[in-house]
Specification:
- It is a single chain.
- The chain is mainly beta and 80 residues long.
- 0% of the residues lie in helices and 57% in strands.
- The strands form 2 sheets. The chain has a 6-stranded antiparallel beta sheet with strand order 1-2-3-8-5-6, with no helix packed on it. It has a two-stranded antiparallel sheet with strand order 4-7.
- Strand 5 and strand 6 form a beta hairpin.
- The protein is globular.
């Protein structure tokens, strides 16, 4: 389900049995800084467990997550 679209930048979410999958999509020709607040995707915990699925690592992001998404790239997270 698309949560937000800002031009060529899109934020998507998918409910999982144990949390939410969050995708940050950059469809533009240049890298872009993107941010997601957990409340936007239905997470109300103060310090959710966040895993970057492409990098195979856990991420510290208490209230929000911010990263640079490469041109025509995707960052995929699992948030619980």
């Amino acid at each position: 389900m698309r949560v937000r679209q800002d031009g060529e930048l899109e934020l998507w979410k998918k409910e999982l049995s144990d949390g939410v999958a969050v995708g940050l999509f950059n469809r533009s020709a240049a890298p872009a800084q993107m941010k997601v607040k957990w409340s936007e995707v239905g997470i109300d915990k103060k310090s959710p467990q966040v895993r970057d699925l492409w990098a195979h690592k856990d991420v510290e992001a208490p209230a929000e997550f911010s990263t640079e998404v490469p041109s025509h790239g995707v960052v995929l997270l699992r948030v619980r």
